[in-house]
Every structure is written in structure tokens, then in C-alpha cells.
Specification:
The chain is of the alpha+beta class and 236 residues long. Helices cover 19% and strands 26% of the residues. The protein is built from six helices and twelve strands. The strands form two sheets. The protein has a ten-stranded mixed beta sheet with strand order 10-8-7-6-11-2-3-4-1-12, with helices on one face. A two-stranded parallel ribbon has the order 5-9. β3 and β4 form a beta hairpin. The chain is globular. The N and C termini lie far apart (109 Å).
Length: 236
């Protein structure tokens, strides 16, 4: 019978266990690849139906409990305004989309909190349906507990902060990261609530998004703690 001496045993076991097993710490160092957020196109129509009231009438449907003045209305606009452009009155919390017949469609909006609102003249360079969302570095730095968990982005959908549609505001070729977008918090309309963007009811911006052309201009007027916005609009 083969005799296994001590020296042979030690040599054999050393060969057998020469490669150390990974420690728990080493296993934890394995980094999973980042997942790119998506917007599932196959769900878009279903999501649209989910955020649009039954028998939807923009002028009267109000399951959100908004003040009636924030429901979409057609109003008269002063002459000289360019059809297709958007004007945001930050004082009254209205967005106006100028029409070719001298009128404008008016919608209620929410604007940014405090000094996060940025008045200016912007170009709408991009539109998106059920957009994905990634918080900016400044948002994460300002509120890490709120925005940090979403640093890698969030899938499009009814709970996404950009909601059902988004219009992307640029200065020249620079993305300002400001948006006019839908919100899963419709009761914020009429207030100062966002981190810089202009919010709309999801059903309302679905209508607006279909009418806005890329290349149009968006004018964001100063809020109440600055120069009063111009009175360019009157009710019919």
C-alpha cells in the first residue's frame, strides 16, 4: 500500500491550496457595471392614459384640485409676439404658448424655489416623451440625501421627476439643465417648488409638447422678488 509521508503530504496540500480563496472584502470590491436608465417606449401610450383624466377636457378636468385659473385657457396676446414661442410669467405662475392668430394658450406652472429660478431667454433645442432624469452635481451637493440615490439616473415613467414630457432649454449650444416638464406632484402648480425647472401638470404638457417646435424661444421672466414681469397678456 502506498505510504503517505508527512513531507509528501505537506507538499501536496501546498500545491492543492496554493491559490488563496478571495476574502469577503475582496468579493465586496467587485463593482457591478452601471445600468443605463431607459424609457420603455412600449409603455408610453399606457403611461399617457394613466396620467390623463377620463373624458379629459383641458379647460375643465381637474382631479388635481388646482385653482381654476391654472387650467389651460386660450387668452389674447399683445401684438408683435412670435408664434410658437413660450413666455413664462413667474409672478402669476403662467406659461403662455403664442399662437398664429394673436392668441396664446395659457397653462398654470410651478417655478423654482428661492434663487434657483433662472430668468432668461432660452432656445428649445430638444423635446422628449417620458424622459429619463439624472440630478445635476449641484443638486446632489445641495441635497445629497434626496438626490444622491439617483446619481446614475432614473428610468422614464409616471414617478420620474420630469414626468410625461420635457422641453430642454439651451443657451446657444450649452445645455442649461433647465427644463419645462411634467411633474408627478401636480398640487405644486402655482407655487415655488422645483430645483430650477418649470413644472406643469402631466396631461397639460402632453398637449403643449405636441404643439411646440424645436428651435422656438422660451422667455422666463423674473419672479416677484425681482423686476415685475411685463403685462403682455390679457384674458379674452
Amino acid at each position: 500500500m502506498y505510504q503517505l509521508n508527512r513531507r509528501h503530504f505537506l507538499t501536496s496540500t501546498a500545491a492543492l491550496f496554493a491559490a488563496p480563496l478571495p476574502t469577503l472584502a475582496q468579493e465586496q470590491d467587485v463593482v457591478e457595471p452601471k445600468r443605463t436608465p431607459i424609457s420603455d417606449r412600449s409603455m408610453w401610450a399606457r403611461w399617457d392614459a394613466r396620467v390623463t383624466p377620463s373624458n379629459y377636457d383641458p379647460a375643465t378636468s381637474n382631479p388635481w384640485g388646482l385653482h381654476s385659473r391654472f387650467l389651460p385657457q386660450r387668452v389674447a396676446a399683445n401684438s408683435g409676439l412670435v408664434p410658437g414661442d413660450i413666455h413664462v410669467d413667474a409672478v402669476a405662475r403662467y406659461l403662455y404658448h403664442i399662437q398664429s392668430d394673436g392668441t396664446a394658450m395659457r397653462y398654470g406652472v410651478a417655478i423654482a424655489r428661492g434663487d434657483l429660478y433662472e430668468p432668461g431667454i432660452y432656445n428649445i433645442k430638444r423635446k422628449a416623451r417620458w424622459p429619463i432624469w439624472t440630478p445635476t452635481a449641484s443638486m446632489i451637493e445641495r441635497e445629497p440625501d434626496v438626490y444622491g440615490p439617483f446619481a446614475d439616473g432614473m428610468d422614464g415613467g409616471p414617478t420620474n421627476p420630469l414626468g410625461s414630457r420635457a422641453l430642454y432649454l439651451y443657451e446657444g449650444n450649452r445645455d442649461t439643465y433647465l427644463r419645462i416638464h411634467g411633474t408627478p406632484q401636480p398640487r405644486s402648480i402655482g407655487s415655488r417648488a422645483s430645483s430650477g425647472c418649470v413644472r406643469m401638470v402631466m396631461a397639460h404638457i402632453i398637449d403643449l409638447h405636441a404643439e411646440v417646435r424645436t428651435g422656438s424661444t422660451a422667455f422666463l421672466y423674473p419672479p416677484e422678488n425681482a423686476v415685475t414681469a411685463p403685462s403682455e397678456f390679457d384674458l379674452t
